[in-house]
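Quick one:
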Amino acid sequence: MQSPMIVRRLALSALLVASPFVSCASVASAPSTTTVLLNVTLIDGTGAAPIPGRTIVLRGARIESIGAVGEVDVPDGAEVLDLDGRFVVPGFIDLHVHLPGNRDVQEALLELCLEYGVTTILNPGAREGAGVELRERIRSGRVRGPRMFTAGRIIECFDDVDAPGEDGFRDWAVHVDSEAAVRAEVRAQVATGVDFIKLYRRMPPELVAAAVDEATRHGVPVIGHMGTTTWGQAVDRGVAMLVHSGWGTSMDELIELDDPESATDTEWYQAYGRATEGASFAALARALVEREVIVVPTLAITMASGLGEDAALIPRFRADLAPDSEIDDWWSDGWRARHPQYGPDSEEEAEMMRTVYFPAALAIARGFHRAGVTIGVGTDVGNSWIVAGFAFHLELELLQEAGIPPLDLLRMATWNGAVALGIEDEAGTIEAGKRADLVVLTSNPADDIRNTRAIESVFLAGERR
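Output:
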């Protein structure tokens, strides 16, 4: 079986060959002006230290040249911006943005992404009208927003007890119950032009294997929000991206307890936090590295889901920034005030979630980083409190709280995201020839990742917003 990295590159190549519209749209929407960013401190996204005193020349949608001040020719007629004291980083890549079908709200969320420097997004499970159709509207210039990649509807396997009713998962997930059904669904989604296939929690290992095999035949990588299938099983079967490392069910294989069946929740999560010290974690991390699997921890939604009854957290998530419109089963006024998904049964349980559960989720993310696993940044927009654009910076802050250094975080937020999408040849770092997706900051994010919020301007394919 081909590695996930190769599948991602094949998927990008197939997209560029099969859709001449992509290149035409890029040329049509590119600005014709030349812009010079003078006297900037460059943080290029590779993990390298900041380099002061640089000049960056943007011509159209691309970066034309980079060099020391005084050593780079400033083209005649160029717009010159003296950015002394500013820091320039690559545009941010959010690998987990669900969007609603409502076009007005779509556009509001896309604008929020750009406002907060997110220039590329992945929709890992699209509702009707928010997947391939929206991606093409953005590419054609009919909708302004970050460059978008998308999966189709989430593929799930329900048993008789959990089968959705009329108001259940039907608008955002499709039910499969056999190998033939999952292969047919993958083929149908590939035919629509999706960039990824997304599998959900109840998919058993044999159906995950069938989905990955079918998707690989068509050069499309698979994202897994696992549960019934463990992360180790998903890696063995070729899943390219695994999301939600803070969710416990799919990580049970890492827990080392003498008697797991009788363990209390507190004991279980304590063991979860210690998992990085065990042989099971080391084996999983090694497999993730060897198979080049992208891990997207989504710590902000982990915090919101587990601690969401704590009203004191609401300001940290800035839910007030979300669009005013209420959308059934996506965003509602109630979700602005609380997150009832995992409400604790008692004050004691709430305290355990704060002091044991969430620190354990941070420990898992820190352990993956230390083991050399490729980590991408994703927010899970579409859930309570997770506001497009802003949540990306909260996610970075939580990853910093986990103990990951700022320059490593900037690489995760840019280069690793490009690798996950198979676009590292044209995005993710600041280099001559790449797309001019850039963020200008007034404070140094290498000192504190929270400084990524100090945004002065954003360039999307060379155009300043």
